[in-house]
Each structure stands twice: as C-alpha cells, then as structure tokens.
Amino acid sequence: MRQPLFTNHDKYHLHKILGFGCLFNFFLRIYWLVVFGSMYIYADSQTSLLIPIAHLTLSLSSIIFQVPQTRLNSKIIIWKELQLHNMIFTSRSAIIMIYSIICIRNNININSKYYYLYQIGKLALILLHHMLADYITLKYNMNEKTTTRDINWENISDNVKSLVKKYYAICQILAINALILTDNEKFGSGAIESAFLIMFPIQLSTFLMTLVRKSIISNISWHIFYGLSLLSPFLIVINTINGATEGNKNKLEFAKIYLPILYIIFRLEYNFNKYYLMFHVFTINMYIQYKNNNRMIV
To answer: What is the Cα–Cα distance from 181 to 110, expressed in whole angstroms?
Structure first.
C-alpha cells in the first residue's frame, strides 16, 4: 500500500526543504553543464561554499529518522549502515569541494609551487573517509554484502545481477579515481565539479529508497534510476576531453585514462587492496606531473 511521502518525523521540515532544494540544484547544474559546459561553481563566488554545506547538511539531517539496524532482504529501505555510509561519502565530496575552494581563494592552484600540498591533502581526505566507511561496515555489516551493489532485486536473472553489480563497482572505482586525479581550477571544472557530480548518485539513492519504502516506486525502478545517475560524473570526463587543447593532451591527460582502467583490473580481477591502489594512482600521477614540469613543482 502506498504511504504518504511526508510524515511528522521531520518536525520543522528542514530535511524536506533541503532535500528538494538539493535535488533541484543537482538537476539545474547538470543541465548547465550539458548545455553551457559549466556548472558555474566558481571558487571566488561568495556563494560557492554554500553548495557543499547545504548538501552535507541534508545528509547529516537524516539522522533524525529512525532506521533498522540491519538490512531487510525483501525490500529496498534505508538501514543504519547505508545511512552512515551515505553521510560519509556525501561528506567526502562536500569536504573536498570546501577544501578546494578555500585553496583556490588562498592562491593554491594548478600554477602554484605549493600545489602538491593541495593534492596530498586531498588524498588524505579521501583516505580518511574511506577508513571511516570501512569502520562502519565492520560495526554494522552482518552478512558480508555491500551497501549498494547487493541491493534487493525483483525477478532478475543472476547473469543480469552480476553484470549490474560489476557496473556499480566500476562506477564507484571511477569516482574514487576522479577525486584523486582531477585538478583544482578556479572555475570549478576539475575537482570541484567532479566532487559535486560524484555526490549526486549518493544523495539520489537515499531519496529513491524513501520512494521505495513508501511504495511509490519498485525495487527495480530504484536500480534503473540509480544506475542512470551513476553516468553523471562521465559528463566531466567528456567535457574535459572536448575542452582540451592539443598542447594539453599529453602524458598527464593520458594517465588519467589508463590509471583508472588499471585500478579496475587490479581491484576487480585480482582483488588488490583499494588503499594500495589509491596510493599508487596518486603517486604515478604526481610523478608524471613532476616529469612534465607543469603545474606542481616549478
């Protein structure tokens, strides 16, 4: 039976207002990116910091809702591990956006001799958030299932499930690599926009789970919409490639293509440790930047 979308749990309507505001913000900026080639999240704008703060506040405000401690097998609904994971990975994007904006405002950009410190700091933030997520998994996971790749299905063959789970895993790996490899640019087209787009599927998935719990959409609809949302960060890649000049299409840009591919192979086929792979992607990228004698060390 379909249930009402709005309840009395959100007494002051903070979560609802933030939720629809953030959803509108996502769709508006993705539209701008597709049509105009930019999401207009400029580091020197007075309002740029409000964007990650609003999205992070939305995720943190979900703590007001009581959720089951364990996953239900029959239906897609939010449970404690997923709730905390979504907070952590939203925080990952939001904090990187805030960190990147602050660095730009303090003239630590791709042309600064201290830029390598920005990259090291960004990697540390990524690692910290993933360690927090692993701690949450260790504390709350009872069945060795991942939070998103093992979400419930409806009448789907095992072969299709396996393919979709691999697609989810690849998209998550590409998101990690995008955060590590993108540069910090004043007009947001690198790390800032990447972090914002990577946050989109995370926050949308939670909203979609609410719709499933209210019987507004089905389990399979959740997978369809979530799967489509995972395509959004590819807009950054396409936009970057289209906007690159011949002079910029060098070893550094090429590395940002083959390093994620190698990460996928070593992680999914050989089960290499993700922290080991993150560190090596970061180190190789830094080395190539140094050898190119551009951006990092002058």
So the answer is: 12
User: Quick count: other Cβ atoms within 10 Å of Cβ 144?
Assistant: 7
Environment class of 161 (CB within 10 Å of its CB; exposed 0-12, middle 13-18, buried 19+): middle
- Residue in 116, 109, 123 with CA at minimum distance from that of residue 286: 116
1 in any annotated domain: no
Task: Tell me what the mean pLDDT of segment 45-73 comes to.
Answer: 89
Summarize pLDDT for 86-103 with one digit per residue, the tens.
Answer: 999 999 999 999 999 999
Average pLDDT, integer, range 4-15: 67
Domain assignment present for 3: no
Whole-angstrom distance, CA of residue 25 vs CA of residue 29: 6
pLDDT of residue 148: 63
Q: How many domains is the chain partitioned into structurally? A: 1
Residues ≥6 apart with Cβ < 8 Å to 70: 79, 80, 140, 142
Q: Which residue has the tokens 């790390």?
A: 191
Structural domain range at position 218? 14-292
CA–CA gap between residue 195 and residue 102 (Å, rounded): 15
Alpha helices (runs of H) in the chain, residue ranges in sequence order: 14-36, 50-61, 80-105, 115-140, 158-181, 191-213, 219-229, 234-243, 251-264, 274-292
Tokens 């063959």 sit at which residue?
157
Q: Which candidate, 289, 1, 4, 5, places its Cα nearest to that of 119? A: 289
Q: Are 268 and 149 in contact (CB under 8 A)?
A: no
Asked whether 295 and 111 are in contact (CB, 8 A), the reply is yes
Domain-embedded: residue 2: no
Distance in angstroms (rounded) separating the CA atoms of residues 67 and 142:
16
The reply to whether 235 falls in a domain is yes
Other C-beta atoms closer than 10 Å to the C-beta of 63 total: 12
What are the distances in angstroms from CA 162 to CA 52, 67, 82, 221, 263?
34, 28, 21, 17, 19
pTM: 0.89
